[in-house]
Amino acid sequence: MGFFDDEAREIYDGKDIHELNDIFVKNEKIAEKLRKLVPKAHQKVINENKDHDGDEEEVAINKAGNIRFKTDIEDIKSFQQLSDVMKKSVQENKNVKAVGSFAAFSEVTETNGFLLQPVKNSYVAKTDLQLLNEETISQAKKDDIVYYDVKWGTKIFEILPVLKKDNRAFFNLGGWTGQDIVGINATSTHGSGITLPPLCSLIVSVSMVVPGDKIYKVEPTKGITDPSKFIQKFPNITLIQDDKTFNAAVVTIGSLGVTYEVTVWTIPLYNIIERREENTWTNVKSILKQKPYSTNPYLKFRNTEIWISPYTDYALITLRDLATNEDVKNYPKPEAKELFQEFIALPVVQEISKVLSINVGGALYLLLLLFPAIIPFVNEEALRSQYHKDPVVDSYELIYNPFGPGFVNDFKVISVEFSFSMKDDNHVLATEAILETLKELRHKHDLHIHGPASMRFSAASSQYLSMGNGSSDETRAYLEMIILVYDVWIDHYKRVFDSLTETALKYNARCHWGQYFSPKLDHKYLMNAYGAQNVHSFIEQIMKFDPNGIMSNSLLRKLGLTPDGKVTDFGIWETFGEKFKNGLNEFTKVLTNL
Ligand SMILES: Cc1cc2nc3c(=O)[nH]c(=O)nc-3n(C[C@H](O)[C@H](O)[C@H](O)COP(=O)(O)OP(=O)(O)OC[C@H]3O[C@@H](n4cnc5c(N)ncnc54)[C@H](O)[C@@H]3O)c2cc1C
Fold it and tell me: Could you say which of 478, 494, 528 is where a domain stops?
């Protein structure tokens, strides 16, 4: 069943990666055997996946390398250039997509038309108060809120230092800061905290150019801008202050137009105190069910993250709150440690990386493929390495993001994430079922995830297609899982994530737009997950801003997120293509069976 089972077992038959490493270091004969086995294993993986499309003809490639498509890339250097492309898109009836950091693992960025990339310096500046209405100005003073305008092309890690210099901060952050301010919210990226909505709620005003070159500024009904002052200064921009429109304008999945600037709200800079607790999933799941959440031992904290060891019962809980001045004095700053840091430093991993000229994350992946018995230990140890007994305190962005934007480049992973309603403990039941599926995949197919199944939480968002969408008292739980990759065309991650998606859908999951998005997800999924009302309200806005479907792509057409709500599923043609590979007879058989 396993990968080079017999040869691998001759080298090591236990469950502990440190023991395997010791043998490798001390026993030259064994080390030699492993050095010979590793290139064979590498070659086998390549052969098993040799039908991948190849790189030569592909033009646009996302950060992880798993999304590739032919397109006309336009480097956008000025507003005039953006405006010209949007005019041309309608004249030539050519599709358009914009990207931010191009980090999404899903097909949300795909287009066969123009792909617009921002090429300019970042821009973050305090919003011009002259254009805001009186009520907003006085409320902002009372609540100590300061607004900033941020342009498309500005990454989160570029915004945070500017805010910090002014003693300002975002109310929450996700687990990475490499995303663009528009791209991060187009897919409803979130951090964690049951009272904190996803990050799209940072945005209070959206400026966008739609196909044909009309320009809009979209805000909630009680928006921040004073319409009369705005019209005087910008007569060519249409200001829309309407909740129905705004609720589609931030989490857009790139489908309304190209957003060139947003306004965000900020709060005074703050410190966070972080505690970590070790427990078992068996205990944690009963704690998670305790209501009300405002007194729940875990969920009452500002930020809660539950990391579950997928193949053992261990769980690591992160609990964060605003730090007091006393906390700052009493507790040390954290010592940032990467999840797999300890294993990556092992000579056996370093040597595989050298022998095959692949990154250390890839070397660890290959080792886990050869010695699957060590995976439960590796995953649990990785979690244990993050435990600290005493609380730590630091500025919020250093606690939430100790590695800033660095992670994705030197250590490739692909992730999937599901958002669950927490009603009737649905999220706990869903997590149980997913853990079962993970164990089944391990036992039957030797397929694994690496690291924890990581549970985070959010309050509701009013954006129609946010994974956190719901009425104001609803809360959501998210479960994310990662897989190491050294070559993205190795499709193990797809097989694991597709199976997990199947299980998650039984609990009415919403799949993260910007993480692995299974090809099985279609219009029926969309209607179940978000409800007909949200989907129709969103389509109304597509109809208004992009009646010709210029911003559409294959994924949106498959989901029915088009101006006329029509679904075009190319899946059946892909199925034909697959069969066709096996010869004309197969293809004829398929056709005659129709
Ligand atoms: C290392 C890593 C860590 C992550 N951590 C988290 C996390 O903690 N929490 C979480 O929820 N998610 C997380 N994600 C997911 C990530 O936040 C999303 O995939 C996000 O959308 C990526 O942002 P981006 O700027 O790269 O967007 P892109 O990939 O460039 O684009 C995403 C979408 O935005 C649209 N878009 C971009 N710019 C514009 C524009 N100007 N106008 C209109 N549409 C536009 C694109 O067309 C596309 O549909 C993580 C991803 C990675 C790679």
Answer: 528
